[in-house]
Every structure is written in structure tokens, then in C-alpha cells.
Amino acid sequence: MRAQFVMSEIGVGLRRNLTMTFAVVVSVALSLALFGGSLLMRDQVSTMKGYWYDKVNVSIFLCNKSDAESDPNCAKGAATGEQKKQIETDLHKMGVIQNVTHESADEAYKHYKQQFGDSPLASSLTPDQMQESYRIKLKDPEKYQVVATAFSGREGVQSVQDQKGILENLFGLLNGMNWAALAVMALMLVVALMLIVNTVRVSAFSRRRETGIMRLVGASSFYIQMPFIMEAAVAGLIGAFVACGMLLLGRYFIIDHGLALATKLNLINFVGWDAVLAKLPLVLAIGLLMPALAAFFALRKYLKV
To answer: Between the CA atoms of 105, 109, 110 and 114, what dihedral angle is there, to the nearest 10 degrees?
Structure first.
């Protein structure tokens, strides 16, 4: 009987405050969708770092005849055979290096023609203008500075470049977007909590006669509060389900279809469906508990007589 009464009161409360309940559902859905999206963005950045950092190389570019005339690092001329041999020997002695690949000027010219053969500059280049280099795969991409310190400024070395530095700007942008999403999520969460508190108080005020009678006949505070708490929890749970739907639709349309080309070309290793599904129980739990707790603390003082 008590359970039936509580359920009937929940239905009455939701119908009486339909507009505010709808506002609660929308605000909870948006805030939790942003929360889930932020978690997925963090996973995406971590996945991309692991994927791309595993592929980046450190490149040691050697001086050629053209550099000797224009680059102060190559003032003593092109790299000699002895210098190249010493560089390669020192590279193989370093414990932070996984493997070393040598690229001759002819190979560099061939690769450039394959990638940029249609550009006007390609027709004016010759193999002797291309830089010979060593492409170094590190065991730990964070150890770039060890190689840079050992070979920067050495005779015959024009420059030492770390491809990871190019990616840092991208990851910095993605992290910034993630923090911005978290800030908007926090704002929406505050709005949702305020709406929940106001909705519960309006509902309690509209039924003040019923709650007064229940108090007079000896009903406990928790029993009186239960319908209001459940109303907030139901509204929050509906919003959480909507947020889950938004996350699933976002993964389906944005990644599976909108970014399908990048996926096929293996340009970006996107988070999978398992990562999305793993976030849904957390979204649902927050959507259920957050409104219930907000309603509980809001009613403790309001219904106290």
C-alpha cells in the first residue's frame, strides 16, 4: 500500500510540474552528455597519443653542399664519410634508441617526388639538394632531448628534429577543448541542480496540505520526502537516458559516418564502442543519484516542522 501511494504521488508531482520537469530533464541530459563526451575526449587524446607517439621519429639531418653556403651550422661544409660513420656508431651505442634508419639524399629525393611531385618546387629540385638523414625510433618518445643534446651542434649535423613536437600543439588544442567542455558541463550541472531544487520545492509547496496531514497522523519525515525525492530521481534518470542516447548517436554519426574516411585510412585511432558503452553506467548512476541527493538536502529544511 505504501509503495503504491509513493508511486501515485510521483506521477501526480510530475504531471503538476510538467514544464519544470521537462527543464530538469533537458538540463540534466545536456550536462551529462557533456560529461560523458569529456570523458570520451580524454580517452581519445590518450589513445591518439599512444598511437602517434609510437610512430613518431627523431630525425638527424646532415649538412649538404647547399647548406654549407646558407646555414651557419654547416659552415665547415657537407658531412664527410667519417662524420657519418661516427654519428651512426654513436647512435647504435645509445640505450634509448630502438632502431636507426638511414635515408640517403637519393632516397629523400624519391620520397619527396612521390609525395609532392605535383608541386612547382619539385621540378626545380635535384637529388644533391636533398638532405641525407638518420631516422631514429626511440624506445620512449619522451627521451628526445637525450638525442638532441648528443648531436645538436656536432660537425656535419644541420639539425635534430623531433616529430613529437608537431603533435604537441594538436594535443594541446584537444586538451583545451576538453577543459572547455568540462567548464560548460559544470555550468549546466549547476543550472540542473538549481532547477531540481526549485522543482522539488514548488512540488512540496503545492502539496503542503497533504504533507501537513501526513505529519499529523504520524508519518515519518523520510516517508513524506520519498515521493519528492523519487520525482527528482525519475526526472534525472530520464535525462541520463537521453544523454546516453546522445553519446551513442554522436559516436555513430560523428565517427562511424562523419569521420569514416579518416578511420579507413588509419589516420586517427578513434575510441571504440566499448569505451562509449563503459561510460553509460556512470552517466546513468549520476543521473539517478545527483537529483535524488539534491532533493533530499533541499527538503530537509523545507519540510521541517
So the answer is: 150
